[in-house]
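Quick entry between incubations.
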Amino acid sequence: MDAVARLVREEGTRVLATLIRVTGNVDLAQDATQDAVVRALETWPRDGTPDNPRAWLLVTAKRRAVDVIRREARRAGKEAAAMDWTTDPQDESAETIHDDLLRLVFTCCHPALSLEAQVALALRTLGGLSTGEVARGLLVPEATMAKRLTRAKQKIRQAAIPYRVPEPAELPSRLSGVAATVYLIFNEGYAAGGGAALVRTELAAEAIRLGRLLAELMPDEPTVLGLLALMLLQNARRDARVGPSGDLILLPDQDRSRWNPGAIKEGVQLIGVALRRTPDRPDSYVVQAAIAACHALAPSYAETSWESVVSWYDVLLSVNDTPVVRFEPRGGDQ
Amino acid sequence: MPLYVALTYTRDVDWTAPEQAGDLQGYEDFAKSAAAVIRGGQALYPTATATTVRVSGGKGGDVVTSDGPYAETKEALTGFYLLECADLDEAVKMSAGLPAAWDGAVEVRPVIQFPA
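Done. Structure below.
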């Protein structure tokens, strides 16, 4: 992806988040943003990138949305409602854009939506993937995915799922829902392995991108930091997990020089920050990341500090007492 | 403002029976605490009183009735409330105060408000 495409994609997500709030309609906002993105990709490489790319995209997308609303009102023989939101895009402060993105995160991962709808919506709106890309990534026919996305957006509109950040009291449970959705996306890609189509393994990178976005939006939340750390540490071993013929190589046999030292370092640092936030009761993602770090930092399988691994598993049991944890093999297999 | 119907699914109870007075009190408490958003609602007689109506052969055809509810389920539709709430989050929060939420389940559905 070239620099312009990356910039357009990143800013497109922010523009979409704002436009959903302004129009109150996910579909309309998505079409209008898509239109602006296409125009940007056509004109920017030719005429140069505007000074304020986000403002350019937002103005273009808003104009498009207004056009659509007017046209539909005319078709219905009605006067379009007064729209005063076409004015100055500079009004959208950094704080507003930050909040709009958070609203989008929590709306996409609303517990009233099925988990598969959440995953699809997050990839489509926050990740900026096309419906076809989401479908291929999740191994679902494109028509099925299109229907799933339409149904989810319909439910948001018709059941009036709010576009807002949850109250502090409900934040922890809502946040763990968001983390679960992103981690599911990561595992879809990570578990796909080497032989799988690129679009599928790309989901791991996509989940890390979403994790970074969450960490940028909520830099003080241990859940978010732990999730990002866990994904980085697991993904650091990715190249060493697969042999030349696409077969899975287990942890003891992996060539550790092929692990990504930059990702490991970043993951370990994130764990440190997260642990300092809540030293008494670490978040479950932080603990899982710490276990991954024990493996990532060991020079060889024989030199793994099993004592640390076991004590982190004990912590995990105390913060997250589920049968799955209790039966997890303590050696770790990948 | 959005309008929701909260359908209560519980044991197939007869609300008029004296032994239901205790359970009924829970709903009266709910009605008091949620008075600001309740726009209507009723309790229903048990499913044994239900009659399912079908017309065979299209409109104007024979009216065929059968004894009992449309769907036989373990938990029965025993009542409903009409709630006017700001959004789904509020509707869910209010519905979680219905005894049916812990004695059975509450289905929350948005109501279509056709333009007058």
